[in-house]
């Protein structure tokens, strides 16, 4: 059907060229309705492409965020498991508690030393 229409149009163009010369015939413009329809369809296709691109970008970004959050959660689990296995033994708990008390004693001694420093003459 489309091939027949093209052949018919070609024959008409040949007849017009014989009468008016090869450069004398100018094909008339489409009617306003056809131009409007053509531009509307073209713009609709472009906007659909834009929408689909923006949606795919959004979904890709969302997927990346979800992947990151999942991996972050898994890392935290692994770290807590390592901490639990490392510090939950009885010997480690005793060592850590001993360290706490010894460090507190050192802090108290440092404070005593600071309070015994002689004052400068300027302060008095």
Could you list some keywords that capture this structure?
mainly alpha, 81% helix, rod-shaped, POLR1D-like, 124 residues
Characterise the protein shown here.
InterPro entries: POLR1D-like. Residues 1-18, 69-124 have a biased composition (Basic and acidic residues). The chain is an all-alpha fold. Helices cover 81% and strands 0% of the residues. The chain has 3 helices and no strands. The protein has helices at 2-20, 32-87, 90-115. The radius of gyration is 43 Å and the shape is rod-shaped. The N and C termini lie far apart (112 Å). The mean pLDDT is 66.
Total DSSP helices: 3
Average pLDDT for all residues: 66
Q: Percent helix among the residues?
A: over 70%
Radius of gyration: 43 Å
Q: Which residues sit in consecutive blocks of at least 5 with pLDDT less than 50? A: none
Largest sheet: none
Structural class, by secondary structure, is mainly alpha
Order of helices and strands: HHH
The share of residues in extended strands comes to under 5%
Shape: rod-shaped
Distance between the termini: 112 Å
Count every beta strand, where a strand is a DSSP E run of 2 or more residues: 0
Region (Disordered): 1-124
InterPro entries: POLR1D-like
Biased composition (Basic and acidic residues): 1-18, 69-124
């Amino acid at each position: 059907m489309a091939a027949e229409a093209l052949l018919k149009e070609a024959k008409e163009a040949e007849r017009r060229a014989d009468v008016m010369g090869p450069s004398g015939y100018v094909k008339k413009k489409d009617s306003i309705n056809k131009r409007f329809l053509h531009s509307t369809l073209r713009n609709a296709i472009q906007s659909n492409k834009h929408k689909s691109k923006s949606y795919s970008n959004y979904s890709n970004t969302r997927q990346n965020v979800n992947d990151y959050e999942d991996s972050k959660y898994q890392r935290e689990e692994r770290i807590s498991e390592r901490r639990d296995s490392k510090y939950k033994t009885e010997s480690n708990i005793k060592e850590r508690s001993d360290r706490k008390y010894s460090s507190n004693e050192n802090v108290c001694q440092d404070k005593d030393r600071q309070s015994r420093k002689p004052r400068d003459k300027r302060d008095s």
